[in-house]
Amino acid sequence: MFKKFFVIVILVAVLLTSFTVVAQTKGKMAIVISTMNNPWFVVLGETAAERAKQLGYEATIFDSQNDTAKESAHFDSIIAAGYDAIIFNPTDADGSISNVKRAKEAGIPVFCIDRGINARGLAVSQIYSDNYTGGVLMGQYFVKVMGKEAKYAELLGILSAQPTWDRSKGFHSVVDNYPGLVMVAQQTAQFDRDTAYAVTEQILQAHPEIKAIWCGNDAMAMGAMKACEAAGRTDIKIFGFDGARDVIDAIRDGKQIVATIMQYPKIMARMAVEWADQYLHGVREFPEIVPVAVELVTRENIEKFAPYGRKEGE
Amino acid sequence: MINRKTLITILIVIVIGLLLSKSCHFVPIEQAKAEAKGKEFNAKDYARKVWNEFMKKLDSISSDASIVLEALIENKEEAEKKYGKVVGFTYNTLFLIKGKGKIVSIDDEKVLIQVEKVDREIYVSKDLIFGNDIVNSSGLVKMSDFDRIYDFNAVSNEINNIVNTEVVPPFMDKVKIGRVIEFVGVLNIPKDEEIKFPLQLLPVKLNVE
Fold first, then answer.
1. Cβ distance B119 to B102 under 8 Å?
2. B41, B85, B86, B89: which to substitute to probe chain A, counting the most A Cβ within 10 Å?
3. Which of 1.20.1740.10, 3.40.50.300, 3.30.230.10, 2.40.50.420 is the CATH number of B34-208?
4. Does A93 touch chain B (CB under 8 A)?
5. Counting Cβ atoms within 10 Å, is residue B33 exposed (0-12), middle (13-18) or buried (19+)?
6. Cβ contact (<8 Å) for B90 and A314?
7. Is the ipTM of this complex over 0.85?
8. A264 → chain B, closest CA residue
9. How far apart are CA A52 and CA A272, in angstroms?
10. 215-234 in A: which are within 8 Å (CB) of B?
11. Percentage above 70 pLDDT, chain B
12. CA–CA distance, A219 with A37 (Å, rounded to integer)
């Protein structure tokens, strides 16, 4: 008799515990990040996960490793597992459209962060840096620093990623107005530090006359800087984009990276998660595209900034 | 006499020919190129239409320069709320202003203008205009109007080209110290910094009287 009673008590306790766990979480948010092999994206993904947990959700980060096939497989798993919302950093502006479409068809809202997709009416909202303006700001600073005559190289990011071209086009919308500023090499380094190192080595051999390298992100700027240092070319000025920790340090320390564009991954990640939470509570009015401000960071204003954002209180 | 093998070959050729003629047709390459070009987004044409619309609405959507400048000096936050325009998450506010002023100085970089009815100065740069401030201030084009953000930026660039070629150069040809000008343009004011005069005016319309 006592044994039976004891078993019932245990069962009730187990049931109550599981109900408590369910009651404690509001649901599940998937955070799909293009690559976790870059500190900037780690900040983006982890900030989103942290905010989702603060709001009471279970949060899982999926690393697409810059591979659309992996990204697609993640979406399969996410849809099958019945996640409530997806915070999505796409690998490919065109190639990722079908994933967002499938999620929408499955009734899962998608909020894009940092990068967008080339389609409207699928993602609830796309929150990303105003990369074009960032390119413009960098182009204007580039002209100021380099003068109106110099040969330079450009390292592009992943060719299918939207920010690659927004940044590049913004930069060239300024710099191409000065015929004396001649781009002698333009190659992709895949937003990757090691690739940038190798590409810069080749460029330095083919075009030793360059005075500057404009890089579409900070990881490539770091790779370019290391290659220049190894070749004894510390005279070359390097321009980045992101506001990553090592580049902020390099600018502060007066190394050859002279400027970057500060993006705000924490702001984008938190905004997307908070909006996903509001969506799950019935709110439906969200702007489809939200450009997030970027700022030029140089030695002159470095004190205003910390890695991945402004200093607290600024 | 045709043998069986030749007959089969002829039949196969006829069938393939029929299939090809049904499944494809040949178009001269120039026609194909023209058709393909027609399908591409033409940022220049689009920008011109936006610009014409902008010019029509300019007077009704811009605020009096002297009132905005006074409001900015008095209470920046209130002025931002009342007259400013913000696109997305930003640290800056845009103001589309109109007014009159007198040219007080001209140097290699800029033309300095004393704004009427308020003791403040603005300037028009002799350098080229870049970025999205002008298109954003118009409110006539939104990023979400385009499938590709790339196209929005191309339109913005073309609108800047109109300003850089059709607005600023004719103005610069006529400027002279003491002359009165009529202007419409955009101020980009950082939210977290104190206002520093003279403010740069990104010009949209400039007339020397």
1. no
2. B89
3. 2.40.50.420
4. yes
5. exposed
6. no
7. no
8. B89
9. 10
10. none
11. 85
12. 10
Contact B130 A314 (CB under 8 A): no
Query: What residue spans define the domains of chain B?
Result: 34-208
The torsion angles phi and psi of B98, rounded to 5 degrees, stand at: -135, 150
Q: How close A132 comes to chain B (CA, Å)?
A: 7
Nearest CA in chain A to B158: A173
Distance CA B119, CA A204 (A): 54
Cβ-contact B141, B151 below 8 angstroms: no
**pLDDT for the residue A241:** 97
Q: How many CA atoms lie within 13 A of A92 on its CB side?
A: 17
Write out the two tokens for A9.
């008590």
Question: Residue B150 and residue A165: Cβ atoms within 8 Å?
Answer: yes
Mind listing the pLDDT tens digit of every residue in chain A (314 residues)? 556 655 555 555 544 444 444 446 789 999 999 999 999 999 999 999 999 999 999 999 999 999 999 999 999 999 999 999 999 999 999 999 999 999 999 999 999 999 999 999 999 999 999 999 999 999 999 999 999 899 999 999 999 888 999 999 999 999 999 999 999 999 999 999 999 999 999 999 999 999 999 999 999 999 999 999 999 999 999 999 999 999 999 999 999 999 999 999 999 999 999 999 999 999 999 999 999 999 999 999 999 999 999 987 54
Q: Give backbone dihedrals phi and psi of B87, rounded to 5 degrees, phi first.
A: -115, 120
**Is A92's Cβ below 8 Å from some Cβ in B?**
no
Phi then psi for residue A61, to 5 deg, are -95, 130
The average pLDDT across B4-14 equals 72
The partner residues of B203 in beta bridges, in order of sequence, read: B185
Q: Which residues of B touch A291 (CB under 8 A)?
A: 87-90, 143
H helices of chain A, in order, are: 2-24, 39-54, 68-81, 97-105, 131-146, 162-175, 193-206, 218-230, 245-252, 265-280
Contacts with B153 from chain A: Cβ below 8 Å: 132, 166, 169-170, 173
Q: Is B114 on the interface with A (CB under 8 A)?
A: no
pTM (2 decimals)?
0.81
Question: What does pLDDT average to over chain B?
Answer: 88
Contact between chains at A132 and B130 (C-beta distance less than 8 A): no
CA distance B97 to chain A (A): 22
- Count of helices and strands (H, E) across chain B: 8, 7
Q: How far is CA B203 from CA B69, B96, B188, in A?
A: 16, 10, 12
Pairwise CA distance, residues B66 & B69, whole Å: 5
Please state the φ and ψ torsions of residue A224, each to the nearest 5 degrees: -65, -40
